[in-house]
Write a structure and sequence with these properties.
Number of helices: 21
Strand content: 5-15%
CATH architecture of the largest domain: 3-Layer(aba) Sandwich
Number of strands: 11
Distance between the termini: 24 Å
Largest sheet: 6 strands, mixed
Oligomer: single chain
Radius of gyration: 22 Å
Shape: globular
CATH topology of the largest domain: D-Maltodextrin-Binding Protein, domain 2
Structural class: alpha/beta
CATH class of the largest domain: Alpha Beta
CATH superfamily of the largest domain: Periplasmic binding protein-like II
Number of domains: 2
Protein backbone atom coordinates (compact mmCIF):
# COMPACT_ATOMS: atom_id res chain seq x y z
CA UNK A 1 0.00 0.00 0.00
CA UNK A 2 1.20 3.38 -0.74
CA UNK A 3 1.16 5.79 2.16
CA UNK A 4 -2.52 5.31 2.70
CA UNK A 5 -5.19 3.89 0.45
CA UNK A 6 -8.11 5.73 -1.06
CA UNK A 7 -11.20 4.38 -2.78
CA UNK A 8 -11.32 5.32 -6.45
CA UNK A 9 -14.30 5.97 -8.64
CA UNK A 10 -14.71 3.68 -11.60
CA UNK A 11 -15.89 6.47 -13.89
CA UNK A 12 -12.84 8.63 -13.17
CA UNK A 13 -10.54 5.66 -13.74
CA UNK A 14 -12.11 4.80 -17.09
CA UNK A 15 -11.95 8.41 -18.33
CA UNK A 16 -8.30 8.71 -17.33
CA UNK A 17 -7.49 5.33 -18.84
CA UNK A 18 -8.97 6.37 -22.16
CA UNK A 19 -6.84 9.50 -22.17
CA UNK A 20 -3.67 7.57 -21.41
CA UNK A 21 -4.34 4.95 -24.06
CA UNK A 22 -4.89 7.70 -26.60
CA UNK A 23 -1.66 9.42 -25.56
CA UNK A 24 0.71 6.43 -25.53
CA UNK A 25 0.75 5.69 -29.20
CA UNK A 26 3.41 8.12 -30.41
CA UNK A 27 6.19 5.55 -30.34
CA UNK A 28 9.08 7.59 -31.72
CA UNK A 29 11.83 5.72 -29.91
CA UNK A 30 13.99 4.64 -32.81
CA UNK A 31 15.03 1.01 -32.69
CA UNK A 32 12.95 -1.24 -30.48
CA UNK A 33 15.77 -3.71 -30.09
CA UNK A 34 17.58 -4.68 -26.89
CA UNK A 35 20.15 -1.93 -26.89
CA UNK A 36 21.58 -0.54 -23.68
CA UNK A 37 21.19 2.98 -22.38
CA UNK A 38 24.77 3.00 -21.15
CA UNK A 39 26.10 3.82 -24.63
CA UNK A 40 26.22 7.53 -23.86
CA UNK A 41 23.89 10.40 -23.24
CA UNK A 42 23.99 11.86 -26.76
CA UNK A 43 23.53 8.52 -28.53
CA UNK A 44 20.21 7.69 -26.88
CA UNK A 45 17.26 9.37 -28.52
CA UNK A 46 13.48 9.08 -28.49
CA UNK A 47 10.35 9.55 -26.43
CA UNK A 48 9.31 7.74 -23.25
CA UNK A 49 5.71 7.73 -22.02
CA UNK A 50 5.45 7.06 -18.29
CA UNK A 51 2.30 6.45 -16.24
CA UNK A 52 2.63 6.49 -12.47
CA UNK A 53 1.04 6.67 -9.06
CA UNK A 54 2.61 10.00 -8.06
CA UNK A 55 0.38 13.05 -7.96
CA UNK A 56 0.54 16.46 -6.26
CA UNK A 57 3.78 17.08 -4.38
CA UNK A 58 5.02 13.61 -5.26
CA UNK A 59 4.59 14.39 -8.95
CA UNK A 60 6.64 17.57 -8.49
CA UNK A 61 9.38 15.57 -6.81
CA UNK A 62 9.39 12.96 -9.56
CA UNK A 63 9.68 15.78 -12.07
CA UNK A 64 12.89 16.79 -10.28
CA UNK A 65 14.15 13.27 -10.92
CA UNK A 66 13.15 13.51 -14.59
CA UNK A 67 14.94 16.86 -14.81
CA UNK A 68 18.12 15.16 -13.61
CA UNK A 69 17.55 12.44 -16.22
CA UNK A 70 17.08 15.10 -18.88
CA UNK A 71 20.45 16.61 -17.99
CA UNK A 72 22.10 13.26 -18.62
CA UNK A 73 20.04 12.32 -21.67
CA UNK A 74 19.17 15.56 -23.47
CA UNK A 75 17.89 13.73 -26.56
CA UNK A 76 15.26 11.71 -24.70
CA UNK A 77 11.88 13.32 -24.05
CA UNK A 78 9.85 11.93 -21.14
CA UNK A 79 6.11 12.53 -20.85
CA UNK A 80 4.72 11.65 -17.41
CA UNK A 81 1.01 11.03 -16.79
CA UNK A 82 -0.08 11.01 -13.14
CA UNK A 83 -2.77 8.37 -12.60
CA UNK A 84 -2.71 8.15 -8.79
CA UNK A 85 -4.80 5.37 -7.30
CA UNK A 86 -6.37 4.88 -10.72
CA UNK A 87 -3.07 3.50 -12.01
CA UNK A 88 -4.10 -0.22 -12.00
CA UNK A 89 -7.24 0.54 -14.01
CA UNK A 90 -5.45 2.93 -16.36
CA UNK A 91 -2.68 0.45 -17.12
CA UNK A 92 -4.99 -2.55 -17.39
CA UNK A 93 -7.14 -0.68 -19.91
CA UNK A 94 -4.07 0.39 -21.88
CA UNK A 95 -2.71 -3.17 -21.93
CA UNK A 96 -6.05 -4.57 -23.06
CA UNK A 97 -6.13 -1.93 -25.80
CA UNK A 98 -2.69 -2.98 -26.99
CA UNK A 99 -1.03 0.39 -26.36
CA UNK A 100 0.48 0.63 -22.88
CA UNK A 101 3.00 3.31 -21.92
CA UNK A 102 6.70 2.58 -22.26
CA UNK A 103 7.36 2.61 -18.50
CA UNK A 104 5.15 2.71 -15.41
CA UNK A 105 5.41 3.15 -11.64
CA UNK A 106 3.00 0.94 -9.69
CA UNK A 107 2.34 0.30 -6.02
CA UNK A 108 1.10 -3.31 -6.13
CA UNK A 109 3.50 -6.22 -6.79
CA UNK A 110 0.39 -8.31 -7.50
CA UNK A 111 -0.32 -6.05 -10.46
CA UNK A 112 3.21 -6.64 -11.76
CA UNK A 113 2.66 -10.39 -11.64
CA UNK A 114 -0.67 -10.02 -13.39
CA UNK A 115 0.90 -8.09 -16.28
CA UNK A 116 3.75 -10.61 -16.47
CA UNK A 117 1.28 -13.50 -16.73
CA UNK A 118 -0.38 -11.64 -19.60
CA UNK A 119 3.06 -11.36 -21.27
CA UNK A 120 2.69 -7.57 -21.28
CA UNK A 121 5.96 -6.79 -19.50
CA UNK A 122 9.54 -6.70 -20.70
CA UNK A 123 12.25 -7.98 -18.34
CA UNK A 124 14.64 -5.41 -16.90
CA UNK A 125 17.61 -7.73 -16.41
CA UNK A 126 19.88 -5.05 -17.89
CA UNK A 127 19.53 -3.22 -14.55
CA UNK A 128 20.34 -6.30 -12.46
CA UNK A 129 24.03 -5.57 -11.86
CA UNK A 130 23.35 -2.13 -10.41
CA UNK A 131 20.55 -3.45 -8.25
CA UNK A 132 22.60 -6.38 -6.95
CA UNK A 133 25.44 -4.04 -6.05
CA UNK A 134 23.43 -1.24 -4.46
CA UNK A 135 20.18 -2.70 -3.14
CA UNK A 136 19.48 -5.16 -0.30
CA UNK A 137 18.92 -8.70 -1.58
CA UNK A 138 15.44 -8.91 -0.01
CA UNK A 139 14.33 -5.87 -2.02
CA UNK A 140 15.84 -7.02 -5.33
CA UNK A 141 14.15 -10.41 -5.04
CA UNK A 142 10.74 -8.71 -4.87
CA UNK A 143 10.99 -7.92 -8.57
CA UNK A 144 11.89 -11.44 -9.68
CA UNK A 145 9.29 -13.72 -11.28
CA UNK A 146 10.36 -17.24 -12.21
CA UNK A 147 13.99 -16.22 -11.93
CA UNK A 148 13.65 -13.19 -14.22
CA UNK A 149 13.70 -9.55 -13.10
CA UNK A 150 10.59 -7.62 -14.14
CA UNK A 151 10.52 -4.75 -11.66
CA UNK A 152 12.34 -3.05 -8.83
CA UNK A 153 11.31 -0.78 -5.95
CA UNK A 154 12.21 2.84 -6.68
CA UNK A 155 10.38 4.65 -3.87
CA UNK A 156 10.05 2.70 -0.63
CA UNK A 157 8.00 3.19 2.53
CA UNK A 158 9.05 2.05 5.98
CA UNK A 159 5.93 0.69 7.66
CA UNK A 160 7.72 -0.49 10.80
CA UNK A 161 7.51 2.73 12.76
CA UNK A 162 5.61 4.08 15.77
CA UNK A 163 5.04 7.85 16.02
CA UNK A 164 4.58 9.47 19.41
CA UNK A 165 3.79 12.74 21.09
CA UNK A 166 6.95 13.83 22.91
CA UNK A 167 5.09 15.73 25.65
CA UNK A 168 2.82 12.74 26.37
CA UNK A 169 5.85 10.48 26.76
CA UNK A 170 7.62 13.06 28.91
CA UNK A 171 4.60 13.54 31.18
CA UNK A 172 4.39 9.79 31.70
CA UNK A 173 8.15 9.45 32.20
CA UNK A 174 8.58 6.83 29.49
CA UNK A 175 11.15 6.39 26.75
CA UNK A 176 10.84 4.66 23.36
CA UNK A 177 10.90 0.91 24.09
CA UNK A 178 13.38 -1.67 22.88
CA UNK A 179 11.00 -4.61 22.70
CA UNK A 180 7.35 -5.69 22.82
CA UNK A 181 7.28 -6.09 26.60
CA UNK A 182 8.60 -2.55 26.99
CA UNK A 183 6.03 -1.32 24.51
CA UNK A 184 3.16 -2.85 26.48
CA UNK A 185 4.64 -1.61 29.76
CA UNK A 186 4.80 1.92 28.38
CA UNK A 187 1.15 1.67 27.38
CA UNK A 188 0.08 1.00 30.95
CA UNK A 189 2.20 3.88 32.25
CA UNK A 190 0.82 6.25 29.63
CA UNK A 191 -2.74 5.32 30.57
CA UNK A 192 -1.98 5.90 34.24
CA UNK A 193 -0.65 9.36 33.37
CA UNK A 194 -4.00 10.29 31.82
CA UNK A 195 -3.37 9.82 28.09
CA UNK A 196 -4.55 6.74 26.15
CA UNK A 197 -1.58 4.92 24.68
CA UNK A 198 -3.04 4.06 21.29
CA UNK A 199 -4.72 5.95 18.47
CA UNK A 200 -6.03 3.39 15.95
CA UNK A 201 -7.53 4.24 12.57
CA UNK A 202 -9.73 1.16 12.52
CA UNK A 203 -12.15 2.62 9.96
CA UNK A 204 -9.38 1.91 7.43
CA UNK A 205 -8.83 -1.84 7.54
CA UNK A 206 -5.32 -1.62 6.07
CA UNK A 207 -3.98 -0.11 9.31
CA UNK A 208 -4.87 -3.40 10.98
CA UNK A 209 -3.20 -5.52 8.30
CA UNK A 210 -0.05 -3.44 8.83
CA UNK A 211 -0.11 -4.16 12.55
CA UNK A 212 -0.62 -7.88 11.96
CA UNK A 213 2.20 -8.05 9.40
CA UNK A 214 4.72 -6.32 11.66
CA UNK A 215 3.92 -8.74 14.46
CA UNK A 216 3.86 -11.81 12.21
CA UNK A 217 7.21 -11.14 10.50
CA UNK A 218 8.96 -10.67 13.83
CA UNK A 219 7.25 -13.56 15.56
CA UNK A 220 7.00 -16.19 12.82
CA UNK A 221 10.05 -15.18 10.78
CA UNK A 222 10.61 -14.42 7.11
CA UNK A 223 10.16 -17.99 5.82
CA UNK A 224 6.70 -18.34 7.34
CA UNK A 225 5.88 -14.80 6.20
CA UNK A 226 6.68 -15.78 2.61
CA UNK A 227 4.66 -18.98 2.89
CA UNK A 228 1.62 -17.17 4.26
CA UNK A 229 1.98 -14.48 1.59
CA UNK A 230 1.74 -17.13 -1.13
CA UNK A 231 -0.93 -19.08 0.79
CA UNK A 232 1.37 -22.08 1.03
CA UNK A 233 0.31 -22.41 4.67
CA UNK A 234 -3.25 -21.74 5.84
CA UNK A 235 -4.37 -18.78 7.88
CA UNK A 236 -5.35 -21.31 10.54
CA UNK A 237 -1.65 -22.14 11.05
CA UNK A 238 -0.55 -21.87 14.70
CA UNK A 239 1.84 -19.05 13.74
CA UNK A 240 -1.13 -16.94 12.58
CA UNK A 241 -3.05 -17.59 15.77
CA UNK A 242 0.00 -16.68 17.83
CA UNK A 243 0.33 -13.36 15.97
CA UNK A 244 -3.38 -12.62 16.38
CA UNK A 245 -3.04 -13.32 20.11
CA UNK A 246 -0.13 -10.86 20.29
CA UNK A 247 -2.11 -8.33 18.27
CA UNK A 248 -4.81 -8.72 20.92
CA UNK A 249 -2.34 -7.32 23.48
CA UNK A 250 -3.02 -3.95 21.84
CA UNK A 251 -6.57 -4.30 20.54
CA UNK A 252 -7.81 -5.92 23.73
CA UNK A 253 -6.60 -3.03 25.87
CA UNK A 254 -9.83 -1.20 25.00
CA UNK A 255 -9.66 1.42 27.77
CA UNK A 256 -6.24 2.40 26.49
CA UNK A 257 -7.44 3.04 22.92
CA UNK A 258 -8.66 6.53 22.11
CA UNK A 259 -12.45 6.25 21.87
CA UNK A 260 -12.38 2.58 22.82
CA UNK A 261 -13.21 -0.13 20.29
CA UNK A 262 -16.22 1.67 18.82
CA UNK A 263 -14.26 4.91 18.53
CA UNK A 264 -11.37 3.18 16.78
CA UNK A 265 -13.71 1.61 14.24
CA UNK A 266 -15.07 5.05 13.40
CA UNK A 267 -11.64 6.70 13.19
CA UNK A 268 -10.06 7.07 9.76
CA UNK A 269 -6.30 7.06 9.45
CA UNK A 270 -5.78 10.86 9.16
CA UNK A 271 -7.86 11.42 12.30
CA UNK A 272 -5.80 8.81 14.16
CA UNK A 273 -2.67 10.82 13.36
CA UNK A 274 -4.25 14.14 14.30
CA UNK A 275 -5.10 12.75 17.74
CA UNK A 276 -1.38 12.27 18.44
CA UNK A 277 0.09 15.22 16.53
CA UNK A 278 -1.54 17.82 18.74
CA UNK A 279 -0.48 20.25 21.44
CA UNK A 280 -3.20 18.66 23.56
CA UNK A 281 -2.89 15.03 22.46
CA UNK A 282 -5.86 12.71 22.73
CA UNK A 283 -3.54 9.71 22.47
CA UNK A 284 0.17 9.17 22.88
CA UNK A 285 1.16 7.14 19.83
CA UNK A 286 0.03 5.89 16.44
CA UNK A 287 1.41 2.70 14.92
CA UNK A 288 2.00 3.36 11.22
CA UNK A 289 4.57 4.03 8.53
CA UNK A 290 7.03 6.76 7.70
CA UNK A 291 4.34 8.65 5.79
CA UNK A 292 2.53 9.61 9.03
CA UNK A 293 3.81 13.23 9.32
CA UNK A 294 2.77 13.98 5.76
CA UNK A 295 -0.86 13.24 6.60
CA UNK A 296 -1.04 16.28 8.89
CA UNK A 297 1.59 18.43 7.19
CA UNK A 298 -0.71 21.45 6.82
CA UNK A 299 -2.36 21.33 10.26
CA UNK A 300 0.50 20.06 12.41
CA UNK A 301 2.00 22.70 14.71
CA UNK A 302 4.45 20.37 16.43
CA UNK A 303 8.15 20.41 15.61
CA UNK A 304 9.96 17.18 14.73
CA UNK A 305 12.05 15.91 17.62
CA UNK A 306 10.57 18.23 20.23
CA UNK A 307 6.87 17.89 19.47
CA UNK A 308 6.68 14.51 17.78
CA UNK A 309 9.18 11.73 17.24
CA UNK A 310 9.42 8.14 16.05
CA UNK A 311 10.85 4.79 17.08
CA UNK A 312 11.14 1.45 15.25
CA UNK A 313 8.35 -1.08 15.67
CA UNK A 314 9.48 -2.95 18.80
CA UNK A 315 11.36 -6.24 18.58
CA UNK A 316 9.48 -9.43 19.42
CA UNK A 317 11.59 -12.33 20.61
CA UNK A 318 14.99 -12.29 18.95
CA UNK A 319 13.88 -10.48 15.79
CA UNK A 320 15.72 -7.19 15.42
CA UNK A 321 16.35 -4.80 12.54
CA UNK A 322 13.26 -6.07 10.72
CA UNK A 323 11.27 -3.86 8.36
CA UNK A 324 7.88 -4.33 6.73
CA UNK A 325 7.54 -1.91 3.88
CA UNK A 326 5.63 -0.80 0.89
CA UNK A 327 6.85 0.84 -2.23
CA UNK A 328 6.35 1.98 -5.78
CA UNK A 329 8.02 -0.18 -8.40
CA UNK A 330 9.25 0.51 -11.92
CA UNK A 331 8.08 -1.74 -14.77
CA UNK A 332 8.68 -1.61 -18.52
CA UNK A 333 6.16 -2.41 -21.25
CA UNK A 334 8.26 -1.40 -24.27
CA UNK A 335 11.93 -2.27 -24.65
CA UNK A 336 13.66 0.63 -26.41
CA UNK A 337 16.99 2.39 -25.90
CA UNK A 338 15.18 5.41 -24.44
CA UNK A 339 13.10 3.25 -22.07
CA UNK A 340 16.19 1.40 -20.94
CA UNK A 341 18.01 4.65 -20.30
CA UNK A 342 15.23 5.83 -17.98
CA UNK A 343 14.80 2.49 -16.23
CA UNK A 344 18.55 2.27 -15.60
CA UNK A 345 18.76 5.87 -14.43
CA UNK A 346 16.00 5.31 -11.86
CA UNK A 347 18.16 2.70 -10.13
CA UNK A 348 20.96 5.18 -9.48
CA UNK A 349 22.03 7.14 -6.45
CA UNK A 350 21.70 10.34 -8.50
CA UNK A 351 18.02 9.70 -9.26
CA UNK A 352 17.19 8.80 -5.67
CA UNK A 353 18.98 11.76 -4.15
CA UNK A 354 17.13 14.13 -6.50
CA UNK A 355 13.90 13.17 -4.70
CA UNK A 356 15.28 12.34 -1.25
CA UNK A 357 16.56 15.87 -0.65
CA UNK A 358 13.01 17.16 -1.19
CA UNK A 359 11.57 14.86 1.50
CA UNK A 360 8.77 12.31 1.36
CA UNK A 361 11.07 9.64 -0.03
CA UNK A 362 12.79 6.56 1.35
CA UNK A 363 15.46 5.06 -0.87
CA UNK A 364 16.30 1.35 -0.99
CA UNK A 365 19.64 2.25 -2.63
CA UNK A 366 22.38 1.66 -0.04
CA UNK A 367 24.70 4.24 -1.65
CA UNK A 368 22.39 7.20 -1.06
CA UNK A 369 24.05 9.61 1.34
CA UNK A 370 21.99 9.82 4.54
CA UNK A 371 22.90 13.50 4.76
CA UNK A 372 20.75 14.25 1.74
CA UNK A 373 17.54 13.66 3.68
CA UNK A 374 16.07 16.94 4.94
CA UNK A 375 15.85 16.21 8.69
CA UNK A 376 16.91 13.76 11.39
CA UNK A 377 13.56 12.00 11.60
CA UNK A 378 13.42 11.36 7.87
CA UNK A 379 16.98 10.06 7.99
CA UNK A 380 16.03 7.71 10.81
CA UNK A 381 13.08 6.14 9.04
CA UNK A 382 14.39 6.22 5.48
CA UNK A 383 17.80 4.68 6.09
CA UNK A 384 16.22 1.81 8.04
CA UNK A 385 15.02 0.27 4.78
CA UNK A 386 18.39 0.05 3.06
CA UNK A 387 19.99 -1.10 6.32
CA UNK A 388 17.44 -3.73 7.34
CA UNK A 389 18.64 -7.27 8.04
CA UNK A 390 15.22 -8.53 6.99
CA UNK A 391 12.84 -6.65 4.69
CA UNK A 392 9.47 -7.89 3.52
CA UNK A 393 6.88 -6.16 1.39
CA UNK A 394 3.43 -5.43 2.77
CA UNK A 395 1.70 -8.83 2.70
CA UNK A 396 -1.76 -7.51 1.91
CA UNK A 397 -0.40 -5.70 -1.16
CA UNK A 398 1.11 -8.96 -2.37
CA UNK A 399 -2.19 -10.80 -1.95
CA UNK A 400 -5.06 -10.92 -4.45
CA UNK A 401 -6.91 -7.62 -4.13
CA UNK A 402 -10.18 -9.38 -3.19
CA UNK A 403 -8.45 -10.67 -0.07
CA UNK A 404 -5.82 -8.08 0.79
CA UNK A 405 -7.02 -4.74 -0.52
CA UNK A 406 -10.77 -4.24 -0.72
CA UNK A 407 -12.86 -2.30 1.82
CA UNK A 408 -15.63 -4.30 3.46
CA UNK A 409 -14.25 -7.75 2.66
CA UNK A 410 -11.26 -10.03 3.07
CA UNK A 411 -8.51 -9.12 5.50
CA UNK A 412 -9.71 -5.56 6.00
CA UNK A 413 -13.19 -6.53 7.15
CA UNK A 414 -12.15 -9.62 9.10
CA UNK A 415 -9.50 -7.72 11.08
CA UNK A 416 -12.00 -4.94 11.75
CA UNK A 417 -14.27 -7.62 13.21
CA UNK A 418 -11.28 -8.84 15.23
CA UNK A 419 -10.84 -5.30 16.58
CA UNK A 420 -14.36 -5.62 17.97
CA UNK A 421 -13.64 -9.02 19.50
CA UNK A 422 -9.87 -9.63 19.86
CA UNK A 423 -10.43 -12.73 21.98
CA UNK A 424 -11.88 -14.57 18.97
CA UNK A 425 -8.53 -15.77 17.64
CA UNK A 426 -9.70 -19.15 16.31
CA UNK A 427 -12.80 -17.76 14.59
CA UNK A 428 -10.80 -14.93 13.03
CA UNK A 429 -8.17 -17.32 11.70
CA UNK A 430 -10.88 -19.55 10.21
CA UNK A 431 -12.60 -16.63 8.48
CA UNK A 432 -9.28 -15.40 7.10
CA UNK A 433 -8.56 -18.85 5.69
CA UNK A 434 -12.00 -19.14 4.09
CA UNK A 435 -11.56 -15.75 2.42
CA UNK A 436 -7.98 -16.51 1.35
CA UNK A 437 -8.98 -19.82 -0.24
CA UNK A 438 -11.58 -18.07 -2.34
CA UNK A 439 -9.20 -15.30 -3.44
CA UNK A 440 -6.18 -17.50 -4.15
CA UNK A 441 -8.25 -20.26 -5.73
CA UNK A 442 -6.76 -23.04 -3.66
Amino acid sequence: MRGHRRIITALGAVVLAAGVVAGCGDDDNGSSGASTAAEGSDSVKGNVAVVGVWTGDEQKSFQAVLDAFQDRYPNVKVRYTAAGDNTPTVLSTAVEGGDPPDVAAVAQPGLVRDFQRKKALKPVAFAQDTLNAQYPKDIVSLGEINGQLYSYVFKAANKSTVWFNVQAFSDAGVQPPEDWDGFLGNAKTLQASGTPAYSIGGADGWTLTDLFENIYLRQAGPEKYDQLTDHEIPWTDPSVKQALTTMGDVLGDTKNIRGGTSGALQTEFPASVEAVFSENPKAAQVIEGDFVPGVVAESNKLEPGTGFDVFPFPAIGGAKNVVVGGGDSIIMFKDTPASRALVEFLTTKEAHEAWAKRGGFSSPNTEVDAGVYPDDITRKTATAIAGADTFRFDMSDLAPVDFGGTPGQGEWKILQDFLQNPSDVNGTASRLETSAKKAYGN
